[in-house]
Design goal:
With about 200 residues, this protein is of the alpha+beta class. It has helices at about 1-20, 65-80, 100-110, 125-130, 170-180; strands at about 35, 40, 50-55, 85-90, 120, 135, 135-145, 145-155, 195.
Length: about 200
């Protein structure tokens, strides 16, 4: 009797990590269709000539995200011409954080001169699939014969406070490796930033 009652519990227990964890390096990544600050919807399938994508979950209010904005612009300008454009996604619930509302996203993108799409994860459907937990949280995707594969997950670099003190540029090193046809030497780091603000149940 106890064994029978235990089976559903064990099934639930073993199913939780896969849902909560999101993607791992080597996994195939799903596309999305989210609204950009210009009012148009953006999908990765829109980019015919892209070799991959730098998907960054970020937002307006988080000081870590703000500290990286200029660096993200530089990375986009450097790598989109080489086939790896940045796509930024705001995963936060705007009810929990009004500063991350769509209207505020439009203002932020204009004020900073974002060179990349800045998309709203409306309904918070995309970030859990990827497994993002922080802002910023990076997912570097590479186009392969069987689809988009996750090549790197984690932080942009090793110092959010001072760009001049950065010693390891994890994201750029990973993109550079892909462009050489190699796998990144470092394919996972811990994302450092603010926790994603979920909608209240």
């Amino acid at each position: 009797m106890k064994k029978i009652m235990l089976l559903p519990f064990l099934a639930l227990l073993f199913s939780i990590p896969a849902i909560a964890q999101g993607y791992k390096v080597g996994d195939r990544a799903m596309d999305f269709k989210l609204k950009n600050v210009d009012g148009k919807y953006v999908s990765m399938s829109d980019y015919d000539s892209a070799k991959g994508f730098i998907v960054i979950f970020t937002c307006n209010h988080c000081p870590f995200s703000v500290a990286y904005e200029d660096r993200i612009i530089e990375i986009d300008l450097k790598y989109k011409e080489l086939g790896y454009p940045v796509i930024a996604i705001n995963p936060n619930d705007p009810v929990q954080v009004p500063a991350d509302s769509f209207d505020e996203m439009i203002k932020r993108a204009a004020d900073k001169g974002f060179t990349f799409p800045y998309l709203m994860d409306e309904g918070q459907k995309v970030y859990p699939v990827y497994g993002a937990t922080r802002t910023p949280h990076v997912y570097l995707l590479n186009k392969e014969s069987d689809g988009l594969k996750v090549a790197y997950i984690g932080a942009i670099d090793d110092n959010h406070q001072d760009v001049k003190a950065v010693k390891s540029r994890y994201l750029e090193d990973a993109v550079n490796a892909l462009m050489k046809g190699e796998k990144p030497a470092v394919d996972f780091t811990k994302a450092v930033g603010c926790s994603i603000k979920k909608a209240a149940n």
